[in-house]
Model the fold of this input.
Amino acid sequence: MLQDLSHMDRITQLQDEIQRILVIMSSSIAYLTTRSTFLQVSEEIPITKQRNPDKFDPPEVFEANKRELVDDLIMKAKQIEVLIQSLPVPEPEEQQAKRLQELENEMTVANQEYTQAVERASTSSVCTPMETLCLPFTISPTEKLRSQFSELLRTMLDAADIEASLLSKQRSI
Done:
């Protein structure tokens, strides 16, 4: 089980790193499209638009930032590759089927134990405060729920009676 948690941690880390690389990519695209100047790439296509000088970075700053963005992408990609390499090799289908069958058997046993516990809990001895002899008998789940609900209502009504009594005594003082 502990080993499974470790694998799940790696998968979560991998998901986080993939999300980070996507953020780096989108930020890079946003930077490259907003902070570059328009350059003519073909003699046949003229530049029809100009940006204000404060809207784009000087060529040397722009190139340095591009290199930094590329380095960030490469570093993050290598981190993702390391995480992928650390993931376990998938187990063969036969082992998966055997493991699932074992888990199903364990679940069947746990369900049987639960059913037996419920049956034991529904068989109880009921005594009233005035009785000295307790008689065991089986209570259906519905009867047990009704009994618990009735007891709860009695407790609430008793508490309300006590509160009303205290309020009436305070008023008379």
The radius of gyration is 37 Å. Helices lie at 2-34, 59-86, 93-122, 141-172. Residues 35 and 57 are 6 Å apart (CA to CA). The mean pLDDT is 81.
